[in-house]
User: Fold this.
Amino acid sequence: MATSLQADKAYDHYLRTLLRPFRLKSAVAKQYGLTHSQVHSSEWELFGAVLLDMRGSSHTYGADLVSAEVKSTRIGGAGTFEYQYHRDSWQAKLTEDAHISHLFVLYSADYENLEVYILRADQVHNTILGWKPLALAAYPPHTTGGRCRPGISVGFVKAHGRLVLRISGGLLKSYDSTPLSSLLASPRCQRPGCAPA
Assistant:
């Protein structure tokens, strides 16, 4: 893993695999009276992996990356970064999410503007563990169905997170050169009372 954000590599990746293809598909869609409006969440996970120089997690239902969860939402959209917990794996995933860093990507509808924030595990720990009653209520024993999709608000992320990269009008405007070890703290929460996953 690199010692600092890989901003130049992530920006190049953004141009080649996100922005330019989106522009091309949008132009073709417009010719046919259609709209092309969404980049899949897995593309933001890959962007996060490049930015952090971090491998993907080997867990099917675990964190996206080895030491970070990646979330994305559109600027002016729902106003939250949604998390999803499934019936058979929510306990392990919720516990893991509470003990790792989180990378949040805010993007404009045309993908020309991005803001990327990082919150350390100690900044999200209590919020995420506070979702346990929601999951228990969504998945009572001996039933089927249910959904547990809590979220962290964009306002919370902007107020408590660290803005680490900003793209405006398709141009890289700023990035944080702080060492990753400081941005991410530890891959596991080190705060008193925060037990390892």
Remarks:
- The helical segments are 7-31, 41-52, 90-97, 121-129, 132-138, 154-160, 180-183.
